[in-house]
Design goal:
Elements lengths: L9 H16 L11 H26 L4 H19 L9
C-alpha cells in the first residue's frame, strides 16, 4: 500500500522482510528497534566523537586556522563520520 519501499540490494530487502516478520510474530509495532546496552553505549560513544569533531571544526573556523590545522580537523571529522557510516543494525538470531 502506498509508495513501494526502496532497497539498496536484495540482501537489504531480505533483512527488512525478516525484521518485519520477527516483530509481527513478537506482537511488536513495526517501528520498534531493540538493541543491547553495549550496542547503545557504542553508538552513543560514536555520536559523542562526531559531536566533538564538529565542535572542534566550528571552534577552529572562528580562529582563522592555517591550512594544516583545518585539514587535520576536517580529517578527524571525516574519520568520526566514517565510523558512523559503517553502522548497520541487523536482526539477531534467537
Amino acid at each position: 500500500m502506498g509508495r513501494p519501499r526502496l532497497y539498496c540490494g536484495q540482501a537489504c530487502r531480505q533483512r527488512a522482510y525478516e525484521q518485519r516478520s520477527a516483530t509481527a510474530k513478537a506482537g511488536l509495532p513495526g517501528d520498534v528497534v531493540l538493541v543491547s546496552r553495549a550496542e547503545l553505549d557504542g553508538l552513543q560513544d560514536r555520536l559523542y566523537q562526531l559531536r566533538c569533531a564538529l565542535e572542534d571544526v566550528q571552534t577552529l573556523l572562528a580562529e582563522r586556522p592555517t591550512k594544516a590545522e583545518l585539514e587535520r580537523s576536517l580529517h578527524d571529522l571525516l574519520r568520526s563520520t566514517g565510523r558512523l557510516d559503517r553502522l548497520w543494525v541487523t536482526e539477531r538470531a534467537g
